[in-house]
Amino acid sequence: MTTEDGVGVEDLLRQFAPQVLGSLVRRYGHFDLSEDAVQEALLAAALQWPEQGTPEKPRAWLITVAARRLTDELRSDEARRRREERAAAEVPSDEYLEPPEPEHLPTGTDDTLTLFFLCAHPALSPASQLALTLRAVGGLTTAEIARAFLVPEATIAQRISRAKQRIKASRIPFSLPPESERAERLDVVLQVLYLIFNEGYTASSGPDLQRGELTSEAIRLAREVRRLLPNDGEVAGLLALMLLTDARRAARTHPNGSLVPLAEQDRERWTANYIKEGVALVTDALARTPLGPYQLQAAIAAVHDEAARASDTDWVQILALYELLERISPNPMVTLNHAVAVAMVKGPRAGLELLGTLDGDRRLAEHHRLVAVRAHLLEMAGDRAAAHSNYRRAARRTTSLPERRYLDARANRLTRYAP
Asked: Exposed site from 4, 113, 191, 348, fewest CB < 10 Å?
């Protein structure tokens, strides 16, 4: 089902969901109850709109329905009635039924961004900040967030629940933080956007390699953050990284949905305007702002994107950038990619040696990507039997169907070398 302008109902609901939640929290408080009310409104829309048509003002429709569900809940007992009366005294009743459209809000107070900063409040632990924002704003499931964090699903569910209770107990106001506090929360906001984008670019599970609605939403929100903070180099760097990475999306799969590795992609299918915009963003940020990890990752992506052919890739420059990235922002995924760059410049055995330093890291030791990269480097080194074994292990560990098929196909090419 699509709207008259060709937008799918599901995409429309994803676009408006954080705005509606932000609008309710801004007017009523009660983050946990507001989220429940929004979910009920989204369900009602998903059932009604395909049959009855999309309302002229879908955002206002969702806010009205969600607000009615919320006020019904607030009336359910005497304590909640008192809270509703206090809220009604602060907000004119006509605003409940006809909330202002986003374009009529004061500059810089987009509800989605305000919701981001609420979820990044310092009263919450860093882990809870990330988990809650991914759930409330990004729309990821608890299972998807758990895979993004490389932790058990039950752990993420606990973090989300505790974060909601903390917001409720602390009476955190729903407003953009003052300038002095904004930088403190910005790191969390950017990391959340990064995780949302990554889940969309390479889905952690399911039949599809990519979830375009997530990458598009992450890019949209990154543009909003940059509009709010136009002089921040890391905001520009993250947006550049997203654009330069998403530019390859159309070439990453065959028509049947199977994965195409970077070296084999048809670069004519890459999105040229994304590459141009991304290169301009990161070039400007590197020239005039303090260096940060998102800028370095964007610079690496730019080197890949500016190579006309895979064989033209400047791996020496990429290696230098990874060495710098390891110094300022070390983490196992950076080391994993660094090992590939080392292999391309100094040979696969050197790459395997660096890769070996990750075997004791609990965050990555059992992850399929570590095993898959080891398989690739072993194949480069000529150890085809070991490569075959590692491709099979990686295929068994991934929950992504396209990745599993790709890894099985790589293993099948080396079957004759299997022990």
From this structure: 4
